[in-house]
Amino acid sequence: MKKIFGITGLLIVVCIITALASESFLSGYNLENLVRRTALFGIISIGVAFVIVTGGIDLSIGSVVCLVGCGLPWMLKTYHLPLPVALAVVAAVSVGIGLLHGLIITKLRIQPFVVTLCGLMMYRGITRGFTRDQTFGFGSNYDGLRVLSTGNIPLPFIKGFAIPAPWITLLVVAVLAAIFLNRTIWGRYLFALGRNEEAARYSGINTDRMVILAYVISSTLAGLGGVLFVLDVNSAQPVDFGNVYELYAIAAAVLGGCSLRGGEGSIIGVIVGAALMQVLRNMIMLTTTRTNIEFAIIGAVILLGVIADELVKRYAVRRRAAKALAAGQS
Amino acid sequence: MSAPLLEVRKFTKSFPGVRALRGVSFTLSRGEVLAVIGENGAGKSTLMKILAGVQRQDGGELFLEGECIEIRSVHDALARGIALIHQELNLADNLDVAANIFLGREPHCAGIIDARRLRREARQFLDAVGLDIDPSVLVRTLPIGKQQLVEIAKALSTNARVLIMDEPTSSLSSHEAENLFAVIRDLRKRGVSIVYISHRLGEVKELADRVTVLRDGENAGELAHEEIDHARMVKFMVGRDLSQFYPHQPHTPGALALEVRALRTPANPQHEVSFSVRAGEIVGIAGLVGAGRTELVETIFGVTPALGGSIRIGGVEMVPQSPLDAIAAGLALVPEDRKQQGIVLGMSVRENVSLASLRRDQRHGFLNRSREAQLSAQMIADLRIKTPHDGQAAQFLSGGNQQKVVLGKWLALEPRVLLLDEPTRGIDVGAKQEIYRLMEELAGRGVAIVFVSSEMEEILGMSDRTLVMHEGRIAGELQRTELSEESVLHLATGTHSRATLS
Ligand SMILES: Nc1ncnc2c1ncn2[C@@H]1O[C@H](COP(=O)(O)OP(=O)(O)OP(=O)(O)O)[C@@H](O)[C@H]1O
Ligand SMILES: [Mg+2]
Asked: pTM of the predicted model, to two decimals?
């Protein structure tokens, strides 16, 4: 819980700065868009958080978003598949990718970084291959489905702002994820093996199966994210659709309190982290004409955030020790 | 004696929720072996870490040759001639032995490591601790006892004036320990001062010129050379007498609980191992380090699946392919290497205690939190685990208390067959007796107990029957009536003359 305070504070500060710097930040249209993007990125960030908790990493997320995001409209348009069939194919591919990653990582003992880095290259390459770099979208069809991403849930009494529909999906995913991580024995297993895989195995935990599960969750949520992203923008270019999304997701998870060493993480933190990432991007877009420095600013803010977090933690430890000393002497 | 070489005055140190040191003082003379003893969590390791520059004291002063000094870092301490051999192994196991010994002090020429000199000098320190291994083998491939000796060779190589050893023998066999004692005596002769921490009071008596006792972060007493005896040390440590140390009672064994037939372990595939244990029986497995005892129990527990043979648990044939299988069949293993295989350092005491029994206590996959809290409270009470609360991260517990947490995890499972690999390593006398009593109680309730131990006293004191292993096979079996130090060593070394043993 304490970990979230810091990042939430940072989020608020960045919001205030942006609001002061640009009037359009608080406009209904901008906020709605921002909140929508947060929900979409929140979903893929939660996925990668599972992998990070096990001490692993998933670099293939952006490419899975691309594969699914381009693949879905491509299948609908080129093969005229019925929608449910196309969605089933997309789901199977997403799950299959995670299964493949997990099996290679656990059974062949190849490092997650390497396996998913290769995934990053392969899935985008495959997508560009079958689409021949053509842009795909839904045109004016499937509006019913697109509501999932583009829809709004009006709030009573508030005009000019409505909750974007992806939040429904995000909330369902987040609640399930939080329950899984904190309330079930499997969540506990993930935390334990993230910290000491050998001790977990000696305790009768099927560590391989749990690790595979984490990669399946990650790629499945990336696939879900891919579908929602393409429903939102209605046009996916294989060359850059989902490009570097894995970095946004990993950064959100790390800002939200996941340790890359494994064994730590909270779902709310990850969502706040995802929000922070989106506000930063929004700030850059609104306040400067030079959006090409986006990464410089995002990188600097993340670094500062992580350093500040570490310093605060050290200070807290020292304070508590001093308190123990004082209590003992009185 | 002249002015002491080293004097510690009123050291204090606190951690969140714990006052580890509350004003500890002691002196150390040149060429003296000072034993520091005390219960788990008394503050021994903390005190030594401060001297070695790993941690800073909150208050108190340190004098070296009468001069008040401050030690700011490990480097500082080494420059002053103070070296610490940590309680837990601290080797880079991906590097070879020679590289570890000279880590950070490699002989080099313009930054290029002089590999031949490195090996040659490493060899010399390995010889000094009686370790006959190639300096170019990877540390990872060595058994834990040998790693410990490498650690000692490393400390020797710093040419320290003050050498601090925090439980150096906890993973050594008696033979290796004897070797180390010879090294210590030799160092003492050469004027090196040694601080020696151990829970094995026999060793302390054998080695120490003086004993200082800590209790709850304070000085509890000091014993001059001629006053050192078991009863006095125990009394200072626990504040009461501990009579009848081994609570052993003869058992009436029940049905066969564990039968191992012609088992081939991956470590020693050329030998077949067979033995059986009855319910309510306590069977000790003795042998030198490297005799294949750990490999045997790990194979039975499914950590490294067997290459052949059969295992019957409670009459049901099954060869565990994973610890999960073994646990389901009613086995439990308290592993040898606490830090690697036993404990999850970043998790709380509660989460560690419940880890193996989560599956059993689950409610359709959900954690049973009240049961978890109840289990950990029970284990903290039964095993007297010293922790401010059950949410404390295991990494902040003293070594002995971590071991108790691991033990608690397996006891929580209520196994039918309990395998213990060096169960009392690093545990203080009071807690040791606690564990022995627990073993007795479990045996009385019909649990079959197999324990691997390198402590002769423990084997003699606790086992109904002893299997002695030598080079991967069971060299012999001793009934309680035949059990003696001599008969065990005889089988363990595979020799017939006792003269070669010590
Ligand atoms: N980094 C830390 N944070 C919090 N508490 C700590 C830390 N290090 C030690 N402690 C606590 O300080 C006390 C003294 O620990 P210490 O390791 O010095 O004991 P010890 O005498 O070496 O015990 P053992 O015989 O079990 O090794 C213990 O209660 C321990 O839990
Ligand atoms: Mg200690």
From this structure: 0.84
B149 with B264, same domain: the answer is: no
Domain boundary among B238, B268, B292: B238
Do B311 and B395 fall within a single domain? yes
- Interface residue of B358, B368, B395 to substitute, partner A, most A CBs within 10 Å: B358
Enumerate residues 6+ apart whose C-beta is below 8 A from B491.
B286, B468, B470, B475, B476, B478
B234 and B87 housed in the same domain = yes
Q: What are phi and psi of B475, to 5 degrees?
A: -80, -25
* A290 Cα to the center of ligand 2, angstroms: 58
Please give the Cα distance from B140 to B137 (Å, whole number).
8
Decide: B398 and B216 in contact? Cβ < 8 Å. no
What is the ipTM for the molecules in this complex?
A: 0.85
Residue B264 sits in the same domain as residue B224: no
Contact status, residue A103 vs residue A112, Cβ threshold 8 Å: no
Question: Which pLDDT tens digits describe chain B residue by residue (502 residues)?
Answer: 467 899 999 999 998 878 899 999 999 999 999 999 998 889 999 999 999 999 999 999 999 998 999 999 888 899 999 999 988 778 888 888 998 898 877 887 777 888 888 888 899 999 888 888 898 899 888 877 788 889 888 988 888 899 999 998 887 777 778 888 988 998 899 899 999 999 888 899 999 999 999 998 999 999 999 999 888 888 888 876 666 677 777 778 889 999 999 999 998 889 999 999 999 999 999 988 778 999 999 999 999 989 999 999 988 898 899 999 999 999 999 998 888 899 999 999 999 999 999 999 999 999 999 999 999 999 999 888 989 999 999 999 988 899 999 999 999 999 999 999 999 887 888 888 888 988 999 999 999 999 999 888 889 989 999 999 998 899 999 998 888 888 888 888 876 443 333 3
Give the closest residue to A127 by CA, choosing from A87, A61, A58, A71. A71
Using CA atoms, how far apart are residues B70 and B77, in angstroms rounded to an integer?
A: 9
May I ask the CATH class of domain A2-7+34-153+160-314? mainly alpha
Q: Which of B16, B344, B409 lies closest to A317 in CB terms?
A: B16
* A320 part of contact set with chain B, CB < 8 Å: yes
Q: Which residues of B touch A186 (CB under 8 A)?
A: 365
Within 8 A by CB and 6+ apart from B206, the residues are B181
Distance CA A226, CA A40 (A): 9
H helix intervals, A154-266: 166-183, 185-195, 197-202, 207-233, 245-255
Domain at B40, CATH number: 3.40.50.300
Boundaries of every domain in chain A: 2-7+34-153+160-314
> Does the distance separating the beta carbons of B351 and A202 come in below 8 Å?
no
B190 touches chain A (CB under 8 A): no
Alpha helices in B208-272 (DSSP H): 230-238
Please state, in angstroms and rounded to a whole number, the distance separating the CA atoms of residues B413 and B78: 45
- The size of the A-B interface in CB pairs under 8 A is 95
Residues with CB under 6 A from ligand 1: B 15-16, 18, 20, 38, 40-46, 87, 386, 396-401, 426, 428
